[in-house]
Amino acid sequence: MNEAITHLKVPIEREENNVCLGPDGSVAHVTRVLRMISGRWKLPILFRLFADPSMRTSQLLRDIPGISQKMLTQHLRELENDGLVLKTDFQKQPPHVEYRLTDAGHGLLPVLMSVREFSRRHGDISGADLTP
């Protein structure tokens, strides 16, 4: 067997290749999650929301240095559309809007902690810069 065929090394029962590579396969699911969290500011937003149950936009702006209002709004909207963040509008004047993680967003925490541990153990492999 060809050693370069990595999809056969995924720890799942041996079935057809579409289990891993098909439209509902492992690769498609992992790619979907990576797309959901890709973007310079999504991980800082998610980690801030992991730390606090709900936050207003102004709190997120204060706590995430370098992010602009436009990028915060854009990434929050994308995270909301992907079902990771819930926006609550209190319909008040002045506007009062809060963001919190959904159950799916909370479910992502163990995955991100595993990725963090992988980086801590194997971070010297790539020599990549850890700053965003």
Automatic annotation (TrEMBL):
PROSITE patterns: HTH_HXLR
UniProt keyword terms in alphabetical order: DNA-binding, Transcription, Transcription regulation
Domain of life from the UniProt record: Bacteria
Chain ranges of the HTH hxlR-type domain: 20-127
Presence of keyword Oxidoreductase: no
Gene Ontology molecular function, alphabetical: DNA binding; DNA-binding transcription factor activity
InterPro entries recorded: ArsR-like_HTH, HTH_ArsR_DNA-bd_dom, HTH_HxlR, WH-like_DNA-bd_sf, WH_DNA-bd_sf
Gene3D superfamilies reported in the protein's UniProt record: Winged helix-like DNA-binding domain superfamily/Winged helix DNA-binding domain
The protein's name in its UniProt record: ArsR family transcriptional regulator
